Each structure stands twice: as structure tokens, then as C-alpha cells.
């Protein structure tokens, strides 16, 4: 392995931060690194909103499910899928033609662009000695989050990201075994399910150690519970109301 892969293999989510600031120069470098991620046809369909004002962070922490680390981290980035500027470009240059910014394909392109850019930024932040954690809880009350951030139609908050100097030591959460994820030539369903069996043993042991013996729930049981409970069903009508997923 090289230094880059070693850094990636050490990733962990950080939920407690020191008050040390993230400088404007560091923030600019982190986001600029995010911008160098691949983007479909160079559409670059994302926007990053850096939140540092304490009252605004506290409000977003509340909307994300009272996650205190959103309030405590020195800078909170909100990663948004953004088709607003693309829609404007179509109106300016080809006003006589119908625009398809509301298509499912363009929704996917924008959301994928966010994921690629934000992961680049996460690695850049970790290379500078910071810790990060993604905050999907922003989608709990997504309409209110959008109002707080002043998001126009064609823009939606995909998730947040806390950045700061870690003030905790956390273990590395085990991942699925490689042969459950890496297939050659064709999808191997039997190989996938065997990998899950092995992973269940690993995750049960991990949870038992992490909770001092209180829980030893295997991964597949956690996923079964997750899939059988309705979560954020407001997303589809919200996205449609913002001009996404209309065709």
C-alpha cells in the first residue's frame, strides 16, 4: 500500500471535536480537492454551503435529529445536488428548447456528483489531520433545512459533513468481506450471501465489544430492521416539489 491507500483504510467517523478552527485556507483546499472529482460531462451539479455561525449550526443540529456534533464542529458543510445553474444555462442559451433538468437521469447525475466530490473532500480533510462524519439526518426535516439554507428550486441538501480536529479515539468499523463486494465478470449471488454470513459473525463480535456485552446484533439483522421500517418517506414529494424526478 502507499500513503494514499493507508489514509483511506484508516477512515473512521468522528463525533466529538476540539474547538480548534478550520482556517479559510484549509477549507478552500478541502473543497477545491472535492471539485477535482470526476463529474459526468463536467456538469459539476453540486454546491457546498459552509456553515460556521453558531446559531445556524445549532438550528441544523436540531433539524438533523439533535446531533450535538453538528453544533460543536468548527465547520459544517452541507453538500447539495444543484441543477439550478444548469437550468439557468439552458434558459439563457437555448430559450426556445425544452429543458430536461427535471429528469430522473439528471437527478442521478447531480446526486452522484455530490457523492464523488464530497468523498474527495473528506479524504483531503483527513489528509490535513481533521476528522469528519457525514450527517444524513439533514433529510429528516429537509424542507426546513432547505429554508434555513435558502435553497432555490433545482437544489436539495443530500447530506452534511462535520469537519474538525478529533477529540476522541474510535475503532475502525469492519466492512463486508471483499469477496462479498468484488465479483468478476458476473454477479455471484451465492458468494454474496456467504460473505454476509461471515460478516454477521464479525459484526456481532464487534458490537459485543463496542457495547461492553450489551448487544451483539449481526449486520443482516440490523439491515432487516432498517428495511422494514419506513424512513423519510417525505423525500419523494419534497424532491418533486423542488423540480426533480418529474420524468
TrEMBL record:
Residues in Nitroreductase domain copies:
9-164
GO-annotated molecular function: oxidoreductase activity
Q: Which domain of life is it from?
A: Bacteria
Print the keywords alphabetically: Flavoprotein, FMN, NADP, Oxidoreductase
Task: Fetch the InterPro entries from UniProt.
Answer: Flavin_OxRdtase_Frp, Nitroreductase, Nitroreductase-like
What family does the Swiss-Prot or TrEMBL record give for this protein? Belongs to the flavin oxidoreductase frp family.
The identity of this protein, by name, is NADPH-dependent oxidoreductase
- Organism of origin is Paenibacillus xylanivorans
Amino acid at each position: 500500500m502507499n500513503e494514499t491507500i493507508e489514509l483511506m483504510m484508516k477512515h473512521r467517523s468522528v463525533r466529538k471535536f476540539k474547538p480548534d478552527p478550520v482556517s479559510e485556507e484549509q477549507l478552500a483546499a478541502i473543497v477545491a480537492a472535492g471539485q477535482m472529482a470526476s463529474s459526468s460531462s463536467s456538469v459539476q451539479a453540486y454546491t457546498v454551503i459552509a456553515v460556521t455561525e453558531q446559531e445556524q449550526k445549532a438550528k441544523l443540529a436540531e433539524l438533523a435529529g439533535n446531533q450535538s456534533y453538528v453544533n460543536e464542529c468548527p465547520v459544517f458543510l452541507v453538500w447539495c445536488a444543484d441543477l439550478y445553474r444548469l437550468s439557468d444555462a439552458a434558459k439563457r442559451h437555448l430559450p426556445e428548447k425544452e429543458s430536461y433538468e427535471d429528469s430522473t437521469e439528471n437527478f442521478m447525475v447531480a446526486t452522484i456528483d455530490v457523492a464523488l466530490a464530497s468523498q474527495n473532500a473528506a479524504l483531503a480533510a483527513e489528509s490535513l489531520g481533521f476528522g469528519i462524519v457525514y450527517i444524513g439526518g439533514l433529510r429528516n426535516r429537509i424542507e426546513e433545512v432547505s429554508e434555513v439554507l435558502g435553497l432555490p428550486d433545482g437544489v436539495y441538501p443530500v447530506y452534511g459533513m462535520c469537519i474538525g480536529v478529533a477529540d476522541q479515539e474510535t475503532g475502525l468499523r469492519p466492512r463486508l468481506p471483499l469477496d462479498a463486494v468484488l465479483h468478476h465478470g458476473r454477479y455471484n449471488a451465492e458468494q454474496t450471501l456467504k460473505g454476509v454470513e461471515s460478516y454477521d459473525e464479525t459484526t456481532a463480535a464487534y458490537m459485543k465489544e463496542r457495547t461492553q456485552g450489551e448487544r451483539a446484533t449481526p449486520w443482516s439483522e440490523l439491515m432487516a430492521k432498517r428495511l422494514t421500517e419506513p424512513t423519510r418517506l417525505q423525500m419523494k414529494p419534497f424532491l418533486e416539489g423542488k423540480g426533480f424526478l418529474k420524468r
